[in-house]
Amino acid sequence: KGMQAQCSRWWKESVVYQVYPRSFCDSNGDGVGDLRGIIQKLDYLKTLGITVVWLNPVYSSPNDDNGYDIKDYRNIMDEFGTLADWEELLAGLHERGIRLLMDLVVNHTSDEHVWFQESRKSKDNPYRNYYTWRPPKEGGGEPNNWRSFFGGSAWKLDPTTGEYYLHLFSKKQPDLNWENPTVRHEVYEIMDWWLQKGVDGFRMDVINMISKTAGLPDAPVTCTGDRYQFGGKYFICGPRLLEFLAEMKRSVLDRYDVMTVGETPMVTPLDAVGIAGEEDGSLNMVFQFEHVDLDRTRDYTKFQPGAPPRWSLPALKSVMGRWQKELHNKAWNSLYLCNHDQPRPVSRFGDDGANRVVSAKLLATLLHMQQGTPYIYQGEEIGMTNVHFASIDQYRDIETLNMYHEYVVEKNIPPEAAMAVIHATSRDNARTPMQWDTSYCAGFTTGKPWLTVNPNFMQINVAQALADPDSVLYYYRQLIAIRKAYPVVVHGSYEELLPDDEQLYVFVRTLDDTRLLVVLNASAAPCTLHLPEDAVQLHNPKLLISNMPQADTVASLNAVPLRPYEARVYLSEL
């Protein structure tokens, strides 16, 4: 069966839809999305054309980090429903030809997990070595200077034993000690338990952080004046990462025909080939972050005061193109512009004002016409936007709240400066409830929503999109249908044209005698496409899809006038 799993490549032809359950659909009026709410929307997902659902964590959790702090890996969070509800959801997806990808969070657990509750009791407890404990540094204080991704130290002193435990994220998310083979065996048993229940694979949360450098050295100082520093040098793609993943593959994954994608911040294409190579990789693909880090600081901090770094089109093309070229025939790309941790793409890379619809379609064209498996985050298919809450009290994301406290309360940054950065970068931009219609709370709930609905739901919602043949939603359906109909979209090679152009994003996909020319005017100004003389030639090209009505027939592809945010895809078949 392992050989059969190695030969299967169904995940390359898949289109994935990410469901953030807390914000998708509330079936019982308590203000929190749930499993039965997802069940109610299965036909909507089926008609969209997607073939895989990635479900964010629904396991039992205290919800310090919205489910990424897991208390019991074999149970469902009460707010979301029951294991029977989950089984009904799985059956409903499979009946519609849709597979289910579960979120595997095993770099850390909740501090309320029984393993940690035992671990903290004494230094000689059998579970002590399930986590990373260290005594205070000589003279007192944290064992090293690592900064948590959520602000402050990555260490918390536990008074019971007088030692610190490591938490790269929240204080309630202690890191598991993957050096302990018993921990690894426990993880593999959890995976096997869900796979036997019928799940079709895993998205693996920050999986490239599970191996830490021995000794846990101090991080180099990159933020002068800050007490804590980014320690990624010692836990990103650590020394035993590939060994651990290979063991996971041998112990569990080889026995199933499943899809696996690793969330791997700060990896390079070379790292990705090691983790998910076609020949001997342990996973099917990775989520890389280079393109969504273009407007981040060098130490990957979102919340620096002042104007955030700006992304540029040539830089975006350079990153996307490098991943397309360097993974071709070596590994497989995952394609995304948004998820539950990222701002809305139309607000970040497009124009969420007057050009919202056309720029959302352009971004979808960019993504779905590249080689790899595309991921759609809920609401992306209707062009949902960032939210600009007036008060920090309206936000719920722990990262956002911690950073606001650090900069405003501790560092005396003006609140309005902090809020400007939050409006652009907060994870809650993606987590506002799904906008279904114009009824109370956008049809998400009949109660008080856990997070305020974006006020623009009266203009942007699924019901409106379904009533408009020219909507973003119908355009997504077209793109997905094209992907299924033309193998060149999935498997074709990638060649970028005009890499330094500030307005145009142009590339060619080729598979045997079939070619696609993708032309995107990624700007708010009109321009004209002039193909380079040495550009790949297309034989009798026909317009396959466009995000705008065509005013006239273009006689030549060497001088194509393009309107603001216009996208065109031409097909050539010999």
What percentage of the residues does DSSP assign to strands (E)? 15-25%
Q: Note poorly predicted spans.
A: 1-8
The mean pLDDT is: 94
Strand order of the largest sheet: 11-10-9-5-2-1-13-12
The outline comes out as globular
Q: Helical element count?
A: 17
Total beta strand runs: 20
Taking the sheet with the most strands, its summary is: 8 strands, parallel
| Whole-angstrom Rg | 24 Å
User: Span between N and C termini?
Assistant: 39 Å
Helix content: 25-40%
Strand-pairing-aware structural class: alpha/beta
Key terms:
single chain; about 575 residues; alpha/beta; eight-stranded parallel sheet; five-stranded antiparallel sheet; 17 helices; about 30% helix; globular
SSE diagram, text form:
Elements: H1 2-7, E1 16-19, H2 35-40, H3 42-48, E2 52-55, E3 59-60, E4 72-76, H4 83-95, E5 99-104, H5 114-119, E6 133-134, E7 155-158, E8 163-166, H6 181-196, E9 201-204, H7 241-251, E10 259-263, H8 269-276, E11 285-287, H9 313-327, E12 334-335, H10 345-348, H11 356-368, E13 373-377, H12 398-410, H13 415-425, H14 428-431, H15 462-467, H16 472-485, H17 487-491, E14 493-497, E15 504-511, E16 514-521, E17 527-529, E18 542-546, E19 560-562, E20 567-573
Parallel strand pairs: 1-2, 1-13, 2-5, 5-9, 9-10, 10-11, 12-13
Antiparallel strand pairs: 3-4, 6-8, 7-8, 14-15, 15-16, 16-20, 17-19, 18-20
Helix pairs in contact: 8-9, 11-16, 12-13
Write up what this structure looks like:
It is a single chain. The protein has 17 helices and 20 strands. It is α/β, with parallel strands linked by helices and about 575 residues long. An eight-stranded parallel β-sheet has the order 11-10-9-5-2-1-13-12, covered by helices on one side. Mean pLDDT is about 95; it is low at about 1-10.
